[in-house]
Amino acid sequence: xxxxxxxxxxxxxxxxxxxxxxxxxxxxxxxxxxxxxxxxxxxxxxxxxxxxxxxxxxxxxxxxxxxxxxxxxxxxxxxxxxxxxxxxxxxxxxxxxxxxxxxxxxxxxxxxxxxxxxxxxxxxxxxxxxxxxxxxxxxxxxxxxxxxxxxxxxxxxxxxxxxxxxxxxxxxxxxxxxxxxxxxxxxxxxxxxxxxxxxxxxxxxxxxxxxxxxxxxxxxxxxxxxxxxxx
Length: 231
Hints:
Elements: E1 2-10, E2 13-21, E3 23-28, H1 34-45, E4 57-61, E5 66-67, E6 71-74, E7 79-80, E8 83-90, E9 93-101, E10 103-104, H2 105-108, H3 112-115, E11 121-123, E12 126-129, H4 130-133, E13 141-148, E14 151-159, H5 166-176, E15 185-188, E16 204-211, E17 216-226
Parallel strand pairs: 1-12, 3-15, 5-11, 6-17
Antiparallel strand pairs: 1-2, 3-4, 7-10, 8-9, 8-15, 9-11, 9-12, 13-14, 13-16, 16-17
């Protein structure tokens, strides 16, 4: 079983924590506002990605693809990140992180589930306890920036009231699991609409989850290295 080392940041300080990953799923089209969901579907449709039969959706992802690395390798030029909150469901509670569901958009037009296995799920190294943010969850703000050719662009920005709340998301995932066991599951939340007219396939990607109530942030940053070294 894969074990991932995190730093748990609490109101009282920080400590190391190893999280055992049994399985990982990526949610999609998980917005509370269905008009926003349709907008995101239209963004992807312009890239040739087919619309789902129903929303929200879930995709299984190989656990070895979860990484905290600051550089990832990809095949091809049409890959991009998506800002997401991440739930780590443990035996004694739930942790909250921030990350990116980096996806091969070209392969996504053929098979979305297989496209999720080609690029890593990237997370930042710090996590919070869900209990510490549950009472002001909707006030948390998710942002992303993409850099291309030295130009950094604000790519996504929305309060978490735009997405399914954690308890509802966990209940949905549990309802789709054959054994109903959430313990050891990493859940990527699904994303929010982009602010730019089109998807940007950049050189680096940054994600931030801001807690304006407790005055703290989680962040995830990584560079994108294309495998273009062969003639």
